[in-house]
TrEMBL record:
Keywords: Cadmium, Lipoprotein, Membrane, Metal-binding, Methylation, Prenylation. GO terms for molecular function: metal ion binding. It is found in: Membrane. It comes from Hevea brasiliensis (Para rubber tree). This is Uncharacterized protein. InterPro entries: HMA_dom (IPR006121), HMA_dom_sf (IPR036163). One of its GO terms (cellular component) is membrane. It comes from the Eukaryota. Transmembrane segments: none annotated. CDD domains: HMA (cd00371). Pfam families: HMA. The keyword Glycosyltransferase does not apply. Belongs to the HIPP family. GO terms for biological process: response to stress.
Length: 146
């Protein structure tokens, strides 16, 4: 059966079909003023190949697209409508450790959201930070070291 296996390798059809994009959700911030703007953005994104659902929230200036799509292509398609668009820069306020840190608090953010910046999260536990805390006034056991 070795010869048949060898010959069957030449007869098999290999698929040249590309890998399918993973299912993902893309959130985009788009400034929309009226129903026409909302409709134009929704129609532009709905016609894309691989899009399953499109949710447009004009009050939050937010568009949520779910499907087998490339996020950069979705952003490009929304920008092609003539609207200023960017990826959704906000996170829920309860996820940020320091929501009022500089750069995190944004007056234009929807209610309950803050900007996703590095300063809103605690610093890493680097060894230098631990050494500095040994000699701080907040450390009760600082006098035992000295």
């Amino acid at each position: 059966m070795g010869a048949l296996d060898y010959l069957s390798n030449f007869c098999t059809v290999t698929s040249t079909r590309s890998k399918r994009k993973p299912m993902q959700t893309v959130e985009i911030k788009v400034k929309m003023d009226c129903d026409g703007c909302e409709r134009r953005v929704k129609n532009a994104v709905t016609t894309m190949k691989g899009v399953k659902t499109v949710e447009v929230n004009r009050k939050q200036s937010r568009v949520v697209v779910s499907g087998y799509v490339d996020p950069n292509k979705v952003l490009k398609r929304v920008k092609r409508t003539g609207k200023r668009a960017e990826f959704w820069p906000y996170i829920p306020q309860h996820l940020a450790y320091y929501p009022y840190a500089s750069g995190a608090y944004d007056k234009r953010a929807p209610a309950g959201y803050v900007r996703n910046v590095l300063q809103a999260f605690p610093a890493s536990n680097a060894p230098e930070d631990n050494i500095v805390s040994v000699f701080s006034d907040d450390n009760v056991h600082a006098c035992s070291i000295m």
